[in-house]
Amino acid sequence: MKLHYFETINGRKACVAAKYLNAPVEFIRVNIGKNEHTTPTFLTLNPNARIPVLETATGSIWESNAIMAYLARQTGSDLLPTDERLIDVIRWLTWSSEHFTRYASRIYFENLVKQQLNIGPADAALVAEANGYIRKYGTVLNEHLKGRRYVVGDALTIADFAVGAALPYAEGAKLPLEGFTEIARWADRLNALPAWRDPYPTTKAAA
After folding, report:
1. Is 80 exceeded by the pLDDT of residue 206?
2. Partners of 61 in the beta sheet?
3. Theoretical Cys-Cys bridge with 19: which of 65, 106, 195, 198, CB 3.0 to 4.6 Å?
4. What is the pTM of this model?
5. What digits encode the pLDDT tens for the residues 85-132?
C-alpha cells in the first residue's frame, strides 16, 4: 500500500494511524505547496485533489477517517472496534468532521498556514467566528472526557486520532482551548504515544 500525505491536519491523522499500527505502507509525500495534488496522475487517485490518499491493491481510498478505519481493519486492530463501541466511534468521527475539527481547521489555516505559505493575513472575522465554535464544542468535548481515558471509554480508537487531530497545532494556530483541563489531560495521554508525537516517515526531511 502507498500512503500519499502532506503535513496537514488530515494528512497527519492518516500517518499517525499507519505508524501506530505499523501498517505495511510506503509513505509518499505530496507537496501541496507545489500543487502536486492537482496533477493528472494524482487526480486519478483522488478526483477531489486532496490528501491523504491510500493506494491499495483494489483501488484508492480517500478521506482520512476512512483510511484510518481501513488500516485498522487490515491490521486486525481494536482501534476500529467491532462491538457496540463502533457506533460511538462513528458518532465522534462525524462530530469531529462537522464541528470541532471543522472549526479548528479553519483557525489553523487562517492563523498558521497562511503565514507559512505567505498568502495573506488571517481573516479576522472568520477566526473570530471559528473561535466561538471551538469554545462551544470544546466545552462539549471537555465535559464528555470527564472520567474517561479516551473519547470512547478506556480504550484508544481512531476517534481519538480524529477528534484530537488539531491539538498538535494548537499553540501555533492559537486555538482557544484555555481552561479545558480534561482536553489537556487527554492531549497529554495522546502525546505519550510515539506515533502521535512523530507520525511522519524518517525520510520527510529529505523529501
Report:
1. no
2. 54
3. 195
4. 0.93
5. 999 999 999 999 999 999 999 999 999 999 888 888 999 999 999 999
